[in-house]
Amino acid sequence: MKLIVGLGNLGREYANNRHNIGFTCLKHFAKTQGIRFGKKQGQARIGTGEVAGGKVVVARPQTYMNQSGESVSRLIKRFNINPDDLLVIHDDLDLPSGTIRIRRGGSSGGHKGINSIIADLDRQDFIRIRVGIGRPTTFEDDTQNKEDEIIAYVLSDFTPEEKPVIHKVIPRVSEAIYCLLTDGLTAAMNKYN
Fold first, then answer.
1. What is the pTM of this model?
2. What per-residue string of b and e applies to 87-107 under the rule 16 or more CB within 10 Å gives b?
3. By percentage, how much of the chain surpasses pLDDT 90?
4. ∠ CA 129-170-128 to the nearest 5 degrees?
């Protein structure tokens, strides 16, 4: 069984934020596979189904982003998932808008949701699909202002200019998830990175 987690913040005010691209992509994937988020378990909205002959659990944690690990660790225990079978979809400031990168392991890159998952699982070798959201174009020199600017940026909605790029990447992420499940990590990396 695979656990596929999309990261985001709960609440209508965050629904279209850059930080919620993980939720958005997972919702699209689940819809294409006929999976509904019909249950609440492990501090998450979950759905279960079969994709290409294998069982999957799709989950959107209902904690805030920086506490995502609490939900993921509960789901791993609840469904007896091997952490090698965990896939996490999340936003990435260091990738240009609309770019996808797939990899297993590595650091969090400063992403607080990934930090939380690494801390709660005490391992970092799970698969991630990083979806580029770009960076703010201007930064203040002061470190605190820079951090505040990044927070404001990730918690803001995509601009009208960015939306066409984002609308194209969402189905591409669904294709990448399907490829991962059917053809494996190497094939998905070769095709989508």
1. 0.94
2. bbbbbbbebebbbbbbeeeee
3. 86
4. 5
Give mean pLDDT, residues 167-187: 97
**Burial category of 32 from C-beta neighbours within 10 Å (exposed 0-12, middle 13-18, buried 19 and up):** middle
Domain range spanning residue 41? Answer: 2-192
Active-site residue, selected from the candidate residues 19, 90, 111, 167: 19
Total domain count for the chain? 1
Helix/strand/coil for 188: helix
CATH number of the domain encompassing residue 125? 3.40.50.1470
DSSP character for 34? Answer: T
Which residue from 37, 39, 43, 78 is spatially nearest to 63, judged by alpha carbons?
Answer: 43
User: Catalytic: 19?
Assistant: yes
